[in-house]
Amino acid sequence: MDKRLLIIGIILIFALVAINCAPGNERWTWDHQAGFWAGIWHGIIIIITFIVSLFTRDVGIYEFNNNGWPYNIGFLIGLCFSIGAPWRWNPWKWGRKHRMKKKEWDEIGAKVEEKVREGLKAWLQETKKKEREEEWDEIAQKIEEKIKKSLKEWAEK
Length: 157
Known about the structure:
This protein is mostly helical. It has helices at residues 2-18, 36-44, 46-53, 69-84, 91-156. The chain folds into 2 domains: 2-89, no CATH class; 92-157. It contains 5 helices and no strands. Helix 2 (36-44) runs parallel beside helix 4.
């Protein structure tokens, strides 16, 4: 049953393209402009017309000989149906997905926070080591100066 529907769909698509319903053909002129319904159809078949437009200059994806905003609205509606698939949208799942993502982000945030804390602790310990080394260097210099002073006093006697 599915193969039959697929074959019928393919035949229908080729038949519709064959009767010049795509944008950019001689059907639409400045006297007979594309309207709302043509915009919907052109939006729906945009994927097919895009592929055909790669191989020929006679077919485009948008009809320039149109009657303005009604064609544009129809084109956007058709585009939503062909690319956006609004029948697949389920706004009730958005909250659950968002909560799952928020939970995942909270876990990632906790991991990052822990890594930052570890890095800061290591940096502070290094800083303390350097401070201790500087303190010991200062103490060593003072001891060295006292020893030199004592030896100088002893040598002068």
